[in-house]
Amino acid sequence: MTLLELDSVSVHYGRIRAVHNLSLTVGEGEIVALIGANGAGKTTTMRAISGIRPVSGGKIIFNGEDITRMRGEKRVERGIAQSPEGRRIFPGMTVLENLDMGAYARKDKDGIAEDLERVFELFPRLAERKDQAGGTMSGGEQQMLAIGRALMARPKLLLLDEPSMGLAPQYIQQIFRIITEINEQGTTVLLVEQNAQQALARSHRAYVLETGEIVKAGTGKELLADPSVKEAYLGVG
Q1: pTM assigned to the model
Q2: Mean pLDDT of 177-200
């Protein structure tokens, strides 16, 4: 079943066209990756899906419903949550307070408590530091917190924007392992990632963006083996 569909979506910043007639699908239960160079339109696409950036053309369909003009907070209630580029945690708030913010749209106290335990099982470091200010933690720990905060919304679709950016290699491996685990537990994932090798290796399907347009699509394995993808994004000539 298709959970998310973008149908000929375009996004502008003033007169600058950031995304042009972009169409893609994300099936329920998949990990789908968007890869491309800086400025290709990956983050803009994520912001359009989450409602941060309005679209100038096309449609966004989520779980069978047209959400193109829906406000961002309503999209969260429908089941879309984003861990943004740069993490964007609340640095002066504790880990626990940051996680509570992720559940702001929910009223089910028992369910929130269950999901908090789930986050602590996925990220034991957050449990150890639940009373510590988010801004005092390492970059890897802050990335864990950003993903955990998004999971507290109990999303059907988790949007991950550059989860490995700026992280040490040991954290990169850990983050991607946990992304796979989150997916295996039933959450659909749309992943924007500069580390194309890791993203394609972990994804069921992927799209390549160049200057706001999709130029290639296929399974993660197909794109890993594609000579032009290897040369452009994997550092293999």
Answers
A1: 0.93
A2: 94
